[in-house]
Design a protein that fits this description.
The chain has 359 residues and is α/β, with parallel strands linked by helices. It has one domain (6-340): Aldolase class I (TIM Barrel), CATH 3.20.20. Helix content is 32%, strand content 12%.
Length: 359
């Protein structure tokens, strides 16, 4: 039975997306139909599958004016955390897969990432700039326990004394404290933990396989205790759904040791808007239209506004109110007092670099 069917949707426990629609590049669309013959108990649970990908390059470059990094690494395609609002979901359409359930259940692991990273850092003329990890999919998502690709990447960066910035929802980052703490002592790393809500029930529905909110606060505390400069990302802020938690998240994150705080207004590019509407209809039917009305009010009357300068914060009364609330809370709590910078002067090419063969 097709994973987009009604019966499948009922059995997709622990998943964020409600359906599995075709990507926007597919020529044919299938309309799922439940004839009533198959019961929910007869349908096998939706399981995660992982394909090995041998990537040709691993460092991605970015020139977007509203993103604070120039280069990034994504060890995986797709993300098992299953956050229904994830703006990276549409990228699965480029693989001929669905941005829905496929995005969180059909994953790709770049097992040669560390090898490619070593080669790219060794290239003549490479200019050291902070590498951002966790910008598209979470590098510490559950399959990292098995594949350890993020661990291998951090090992290479630690060896080269290359600065990196990490964003994650996962407590698995604590596994790498033995690498990250010494790097932090040299000014080479900071980490941000993303906390969307403090409501455990809402978090389980929005981001079903990410760490619970209380566990993320604990992770913040453990990172800070290890000497790693940490921040909190309240992302995404969804009007009339989780915006009530802004101040409480910031207060608890500050108490846990966070130094910086940022937020992103809900973004609904391409297929995400329909997936999010389906999610609202299932889990928040009484407030679904109100939520979307506020989202459109902050996006110029549309579900999404992709313009640089507006896509992260939105525009209009609702967006301005959220921005002001966030700014006031950050000032009151003492966030963002110090510059969030890292040391780029320590970098040296990998030990097997041709550049070192001259010495």
């Amino acid at each position: 039975m097709d994973t987009g069917s009604t019966s499948r949707n009922k059995s997709a426990k622990g998943r964020g997306a409600v359906s599995n629609p075709e990507g926007r590049f597919e020529r044919l669309n299938r309309d799922p139909y439940d004839d009533g013959w198959t019961t929910e108990e007869e349908i096998a649970p939706l399981r995660t599958t992982v394909r090995i990908e041998q990537c040709r390059t691993i460092i991605a470059h970015n020139d977007s004016p509203d993103i604070p990094f120039d280069q990034s690494i994504n060890p995986y395609r797709g993300c098992e955390h299953g956050c229904v609002y994830c703006y990276a979901r549409p990228s699965h359409a480029y693989l001929g897969l669905s941005p829905g359930l496929d995005f969180e259940a059909k994953l790709f692991a770049k097992t040669n990432a560390a090898e490619r990273l070593r080669a790219e850092l060794a290239r003549p003329g490479y200019e050291c700039q902070t590498l951002a990890l966790g910008t598209n999919t979470d590098p510490y998502q559950p399959i990292e326990r098995r594949y350890r690709i993020m661990r291998q990447i951090v090992e290479v960066l630690s060896e080269c004394e290359h600065p990196l910035s990490i964003v994650t929802k996962s407590a698995l980052i604590e596994r790498d404290l033995d690498l990250l703490a010494p790097m932090a002592h040299k000014g080479l790393v900071h980490a941000f933990v993303s906390i969307t809500t403090l409501d455990r029930t809402l978090a389980r529905r929005l981001e079903p396989r990410a760490a619970a909110p209380a566990r993320r606060l604990e992770t913040l505390q453990r990172l800070a205790a290890a000497g790693i400069p940490v921040g909190v990302m309240v992302a995404p802020v969804i009007p009339a759904l989780n915006d009530k938690d802004i101040e409480n998240i910031l207060e608890q994150a500050r108490a846990a040791g966070a130094l910086w705080a940022g937020y992103v207004l809900l973004r609904l590019p391409h297929e995400v808007k329909d997936l999010f509407r389906e999610w609202l209809a299932r889990y928040e039917p009484l407030r679904a239209e109100h939520v979307m009305s506020l989202v459109r009010g902050a996006r110029g009357g549309r579900d999404n506004d992709p313009r640089f300068g507006a896509r992260m914060r939105g525009t209009g009364v609702v967006a301005d109110l959220i921005e002001n609330r966030f700014a006031v809370a950050c000032r009151r709590l003492g966030f963002n007092q110090d510059e969030c910078s890292l040391d780029h002067a320590r970098f040296r090419p990998p030990a097997n670099s041709p550049q070192l063969a001259l010495f």
